[in-house]
Amino acid sequence: MKTIKYSHIAILAAASLTAPAMATTVEQNAFFDNLAAHCGKAFEGTVTAGNTADSAFSGKKLVMHIRECSDTVLKVPFHVGEDHSRTWVITKTPYGLHLAHDHRHKDGTEDKVTMYGGMTADMGSDTEQSFPVDAYSINNFRENGLDVSVTNVWHMYVKPQEFTYRLTRENRDFRVDFDLTKPVALPPVPWGHN
Fold it and tell me: What's the DSSP call for residue 25?
C-alpha cells in the first residue's frame, strides 16, 4: 500500500513541475489587461526625458503598436522613424511579468543584443510595473561591450490617456510618452515578424 501512495505523490509532484501555476499578482494581471485593452491599435509618442545617448530618437516619428495579444503574451513593436527593429514582449510567467526587447535586423535575423530585459521584482500596480535587468541581459550586455547597461531598470506606465516607456540607470533617464486618446495609422510589420 505504501508503494502506491508514494507513486501517486511522485506523479502529482511531476505534474506540478511540468505545468506551473501562473503566479502573476492581481496588480500585474490588471496592468497586463489595461495594456491589452488597446490591442490592435497604434499610438504616437514623444520623448519627454533623455540625453545625448538618445539622439537616435530625435526628430523621428515614434509609434507603438499593441500588435499581438494572447492571454499570456503581448507583443508591442516600437517604431522609430523607418527603423522597425524593436518589439517589446511582455509575458506572464510563474514568477511575475517579464519584459524582453526583441531586436531584429532588416532581414529579420536577430541582433546580437536581443531579448534583454527583466522580471518584475514586486507586485507593482495596475498602472505601473518596473523590470530590473536580469542575469541573461547582464551577460549579454557585457559580452557586447555594453557594461553601462548592467544596472538598467525599465518601467512601463499605462493610464487611461497615456502609456509611458521609461529606462533608468545612473546618469540616464529616458522616457517616451504615448497619447492613448488618439490612435494613429498602423505602422508596417516589424522586422522579423509575420
Answer: -
Which 8-state DSSP code applies to residue 136?
Answer: H
Cell of 46: 514623444
**E-strand stretches of the chain:** 42-49, 62-65, 68-69, 73-80, 83-93, 96-103, 116-119, 128-132, 153-158, 162-169, 172-184
**Hey, what domains does the chain have and what are their CATH numbers?**
23-184 (2.40.128.20)
The string of pLDDT tens digits covering residues 25-74 is 999 999 999 999 999 999 999 999 988 777 788 889 999 999 999 999 99
Nine-digit cell at 27?
A: 496588480
Model pTM score: 0.87
- With a CB cutoff of 8 Å and minimum separation 6, the contacts of 161 are 179, 180, 181
